[in-house]
């Protein structure tokens, strides 16, 4: 159903004017991000830029870092490193959970084995 796209944070929903207004930035700032290759908005059939919610979040974060004195290139690198770190933490947490599950299964198997040895009936 077409309405399902409203929940998709990657769906290119917002035109440049809407995006600029929501973010409180001039359209030229959005164009500069596109030109620099830091944000690649989708294009409508007419060639107009279309931004997703995830892209708007990234632009807001880029703008905040730029306001703190970072260049846009370094701000983009910071965001990429943060995303990589978050992904690595997620993988670490998943590996820990798998390890803990394997340990529980091992301990259960040992208990069952020891119980079988004590009571061979």
Automatic annotation (TrEMBL):
Residues 13-81 form the HTH merR-type domain. Residues 85-121 are annotated as: Disordered. InterPro entries: DNA-bd_dom_put_sf, MerR-type_HTH_dom, MerR_fam. One of its GO terms (molecular function) is DNA binding. PROSITE patterns: HTH_MERR_2. Residues 88-121 have a biased composition (Basic and acidic residues). It comes from the Bacteria. Keywords: DNA-binding. The keyword DNA-binding applies. Signal peptide: none annotated. Gene3D superfamilies: 1.10.1660.10. This is DNA-binding transcriptional MerR regulator. It comes from Actinomycetospora corticicola. The lineage of its organism: Bacteria, Bacillati, Actinomycetota, Actinomycetes, Pseudonocardiales.
């Amino acid at each position: 159903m077409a309405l399902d796209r409203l929940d998709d944070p990657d769906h290119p929903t917002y035109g440049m004017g809407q995006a600029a207004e929501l973010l409180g930035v001039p359209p030229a700032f959005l164009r500069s991000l596109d030109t620099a290759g830091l944000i690649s908005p989708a294009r409508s059939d007419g060639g107009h830029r279309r931004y997703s919610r995830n892209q708007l979040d990234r632009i807001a974060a880029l703008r905040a870092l730029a306001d703190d004195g970072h260049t846009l290139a370094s701000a983009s690198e910071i965001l990429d490193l943060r995303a990589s770190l978050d992904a690595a933490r997620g993988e670490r947490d998943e590996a820990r959970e798998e390890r803990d599950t394997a340990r529980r299964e091992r301990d259960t198997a040992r208990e069952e084995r020891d119980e079988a040895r004590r009571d061979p009936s």
